[in-house]
Amino acid sequence: MSGRACVRADCRGGRVMVTGFCDTCFRRPLAPDSPPAPPDPGPDDPAAPVKPPQGPVAPAAGELDRDGLLVLPALPSPDPAEAADTVARPPTGGRRCGVDNCVGTIGVSYDGGPAPDHGFCPECGTEYSFRPKLRPGDRVGGHYEVLGYLAVGGHGWVYLAEDTRVPGLHVVLKGLINTGDAVARRAAVEERRSLSTLHHRDIVRIVTHVQHRAPGDAEPTGYIVMEYVGGRSLAWIRFAPEEELARLFGAGGFAFGHVITYGCKILGALEYLHDRGLLYCDMKPENVIHYGREIKVIDLGAIRRIDDHSSGLVHTHGYAPPRRERDRRGLDVDSDLYTVGRTLKVLAERATRPAGLAARSFEALIRRATHPEPAARFRSAAEMSRQLWEVLREDQALGGREPYPERSTRFEPTAAVFGAALGAVPALQWWTRRSGTGAPELPAGAPEPRDTARALPVPLPDASDPAAVLLGGLAADTPDRIAARAEGDRALRTVETALWLCRAYLDAQNHARAEEWVARAKGWSGDYDWRIFWHRGLVHLTRGAVDKAEDEFAATYAALPGEAAPKLALGYCAEYLAERLREPDTGEPAEPRAERARARETQAEEFYEAVLRRDPTQGSAAFGLARVRLRRGGRRRAVEVLDEVPTTSRHYDAARVAAVRVLAGRLPGAPGPLADELREAAERLAGLHLDGSGSWDRLVTELREHALACRPRGGWGSGFPAGELFGPQDTEEALRRLLSGSLRRLAGQAGSAAERGDLLDTAYAVLPAPAGLRDLVRGWRRTA
After folding, report:
1. Could you tell me the pTM of the whole model?
2. Which spans in 235-321 are helix H?
3. What would you measure as the largest C-alpha separation in the chain, in angstroms?
4. Residue 62 above 80 pLDDT?
5. 98 CB neighbour count, 10 Å cutoff
6. Can you identify the CATH homologous superfamily of domain 80-227?
């Protein structure tokens, strides 16, 4: 129920409608008692109030309402007198005869002449008439005066009328086009019955039913009296000039966010119908009115019960599912979602294309909603609405709006992170288990597929699965025992059990058994369960078949276009495959491989960025995007990404460590750091909070070692960051002495005599000594 309560003493339970009149007593609400108004100030009076601007008021760009949707612009309500046409314009183009079992077409023009508005069906001979029963000035029900014609609906004329009991209160009357149409008569009865029981803020409200007998009619015609919604149908967006859209929707014009907002509101109305066992059947832009900042779904003439498989179907070509599907199975919930998908696709053609991945996510959602196979579509309006809302969050975040991280409704939260090696202070083995004498490059490559598979999030269990509660309390180290129980216990032969066993066997590195159980899950759940795609992707990833894993994660993304987890997995796959393309291959020319590698890196960047912009606390996405930016744009671009990880993230400290290492480290295939990058690294190092002095000493040692390895022959020049970290002077000798001292301190962390000896040998080897002696020391190693 919407609107404030009517305060008239003789009105019980009335609510004030958007028209300004009560829905029960049909009167304007009483004005509250107030003191006399002050005299009207003159136009030059500085105290004169500022009058609000006339016309539409566009909200601030990206402004959200309480439901997390974009605030729609406040469209001005058109003058009802101008909204109605005083001349009736019957439908053209022909219609199917409404007599049961008749396939004739009526109202067809001949030889280019006007279509007849009355006549006889050429097949069954039944008389028809498209002429309106009412004319301006007619009174229906004693007090509804017809003002004009609003539209011709699927089955009936739609008239604008005024309630003469309450001057200024406008209503809508809806009757039949062709009273001889049996299908239309049944639809009208169903519409009256359905409307009278529906109370939803985004569905047009019925006021009453009336009968009216026009002159010459043997029987009266029934009319539905509905609230008048003063606004525009969404169909006008398709043809409105760009200037008008910009004026109404603000500086950004008509955007994808507005399309998504319309979609979520429409789906909310359809969910309300579906919960009551009803199908809408005929969603299209013409059947949605944008009034004020809200929408109304109108024209419920096509409504039918979900279990009705016998009455005639009412639909609109271009929005309804294909005819073969309708003939084979009729209509269902997914059919309604199909029409919503088509409606949003049509509206999106006028919208400004969003930045980044949001457009692809929206298109994936439309493809699923309108999939040729009904089983592949969304299963409910709520499911589709949630994914649509998630795409809106992605669009807003990629457009620079403030992100609003929320828990996924499909995946469990995870503290695991993959690819965070850059954010880890090197362990002692970084120096003691090293081959060669030079400082190794930073670990800036993609992590191993197996490690990534373990860190990816796990789907939330299906609460309706009877085994879900039992599996939640089991340890993953007992897959064989649970598998044996599942073979003999029918209650455990469920999809959730099979997926749990798949993951457990992956942890045990038993790939064959994991693949066997995901195949069983597919047999029980069907071909279009996104959980199957996800788990098959994990199996392939654990085996190192990244290209096959990518296909499965892409299928998951197609099913859940608003979720972050599939994009995170796809970002990794693209990054990993790009690195493989960078490797030498004698079978393919270098330039085509390099071009494909660059395209893959672009994909990885898009996916990682889409995840990180929506939730800056996502460590895996932050490190992944930093690695890609490091290879494509250098140190600064990578550090910018790492700096965006907020203090609320558990990966904040690791990101700060990574930024220091990236600024001053030795990178694969890249020149050494510049003097200003060394200076910034030294400044950032002072602000790090590391656990224990051991971590600090190891990080300082690494930075000094990399500075020595990357030092230009002539030094860093006047920009050298003189100080405690890199020495008071820009000389190789000073840097060597500092590094040697750091290595000697690390020897105190050694866990064995061999480790201690290796570290001391390295410390002595880097000391500034005559070239011959230094080479001799470098080649000597302790044997004890």
Report:
1. 0.84
2. 235-239, 242-249, 256-275
3. 122
4. no
5. 25
6. Phosphorylase Kinase; domain 1 (3.30.200.20)
Beta bridge partner(s), residue 129 = 118
Please, what is the average pLDDT of the chain? 86
Cα 591 to its chain centre, rounded Å, is: 36
What's the topology of domain 562-650?
1.25.40
Phi and psi at residue 129, to the nearest 5° = -155, 130
* DSSP result, 190-247: HHHHHHTT---TTB--EEEEEEE--TT-SSPEEEEEEE---SEETHHHHH--HHHHHH
- Amino acid identity of residue 296, one-letter, is K
Question: Quick one: pLDDT at residue 107?
Answer: 74
Q: Which residues pair with 127 in a beta bridge?
A: 120
Strand order in the sheet with 232-233: 232-233, 288-291, 294-297
Q: Which residue reads 């985004």 in tokens?
A: 202
Q: pLDDT by residue (tens digit) across 625-646? A: 999 999 987 899 999 999 999 9
- Give the CA distances from residue 582 to residues 347, 443, 715, in Å, rounded to whole numbers and listed in that order: 42, 16, 32
Q: Which token pair is 80?
A: 């009802």
163 included as an active-site residue: no
3-class DSSP assignment, residue 424: coil
Give the integer Cα–Cα distance in Å for 764 and 784.
17
CA atoms within 13 A on the CB side of 360: 13
pLDDT(784) > 70:
no
Q: Which amino acid is at 662?
A: V
Residue range 90-138, pLDDT digits in tens: 766 667 776 777 877 887 777 666 777 778 888 788 887 778 889 999 9
pLDDT in the model for residue 127: 80
Looking at residue 719, its pLDDT comes to 87
Catalytic annotation, pick one of 282, 395, 615, 697: 282
The angle formed by the CA atoms of residues 173, 120 and 177, to the nearest 5 degrees, is 10
Q: Which token pair is 127?
A: 């008389």
| Pair of tokens at residue 487 | 């073979």
Among 260, 263, 309, 257, smallest CA distance to 283 is for 263
The CATH number given to 239-398 is 1.10.510.10
**Residues ≥6 apart with Cβ < 8 Å to 88:** 131, 132, 135, 149, 157
Task: Report the chain's terminal Cα–Cα distance, integer Å.
Answer: 85
Segments of the chain assigned to CATH 3.30.200.20: 80-227
**CA 684 to CA 88: how far, in whole Å?**
76
Q: How far is CA 350 from the centre of its chain?
A: 19
Where are the CATH 1.25.40.10 domain residues in the chain? 450-559
Q: Is the pLDDT of residue 82 over 60?
A: yes
Distance in angstroms (rounded) separating the CA atoms of residues 225 and 120: 30
How far apart CA 611 and CA 624 sit, in angstroms, is: 11
pLDDT tens per residue, range 330-354:
999 999 999 999 999 999 999 998 8
H helical segments located in 356-448: 358-369, 381-398, 429-432
Q: How many CA atoms lie within 13 A of 678 on its CB side?
A: 30
pLDDT at 305 over 60: yes
Residue 571: its H or E element = helix 565-582
What 3-state class would DSSP assign to 174? strand
Fold classification of 450-559 is 1.25.40
**Strand residue runs (E) in 593-657:** none
Per the rule left: phi > 0, alpha: psi between -120 and 50, beta: everything else, 717 is left
CA 771 to centroid of chain Cα atoms: 63
Tell me the C-alpha to C-alpha distance, in Å, between residue 573 and each of 101, 525, 674.
Answer: 57, 26, 32
User: Whose CA is closest to 494, among 527, 471, 460?
Assistant: 471
Contacts of 549 (CB under 8 A, 6+ apart): 449, 537, 538, 540, 541, 569, 573
Sign of the CA dihedral with 539 first, then 558, 255, and 204 last? negative
